[in-house]
Amino acid sequence: MMSNSIKVEKGSGNIFKDLGFSDEVAEKELLKAQLGTEIFRILKERKLTQVEAAKLLGVKQADISCLKA
């Protein structure tokens, strides 16, 4: 009979580090993810369209679309 147990490990708080990235890369990627999440939260709170947000931030609309993906 096959066992249906699942191994669970407590994460470090940095998914990139847990995935094996170097400390330097893991920290950089985590900061980028946190920044993107915070920008997305603010844009949603202000109810801005992607076009309005892009104009406000001085980036392309496609860059804003990536935040929402």
Topology:
Blueprint: H1 15-18, H2 23-45, H3 50-57, H4 61-68
Helix pairs in contact: 3-4
Q: Quick gist of this model?
A:
This protein has 69 residues and is mainly α. The chain has helices at residues 15-18, 23-45, 50-57, 61-68. The radius of gyration is 18 Å and the shape is elongated.
List its traits.
62% helix, single chain, mainly alpha, 69 residues, 4 helices
Explain what the structure shows:
This protein has 69 residues and is an all-alpha fold. The protein has one domain (15-68). It is 62% helix and 0% strand. It is built from four helices and no strands. It has helices spanning 15-18, 23-45, 50-57, 61-68. α3 (50-57) packs across α4 (61-68). The longest helix has 23 residues, at 23-45. It is elongated. The relative contact order is 0.09.
Specify Rg, calculated over alpha carbons.
Answer: 18 Å
- Structural category: mainly alpha
User: Are there runs of 5+ residues with pLDDT below 50, and where?
Assistant: none
Helical content class: 55-70%
Averaged pLDDT, please? 91
Portion of residues in beta strands equals under 5%
Largest sheet: none
Strand count? 0
Number of self-contained structural domains: 1
Sequence of secondary-structure elements: HHHH
The helix count comes to 4
The N- to C-terminal Cα distance equals: 42 Å
Backbone shape: elongated
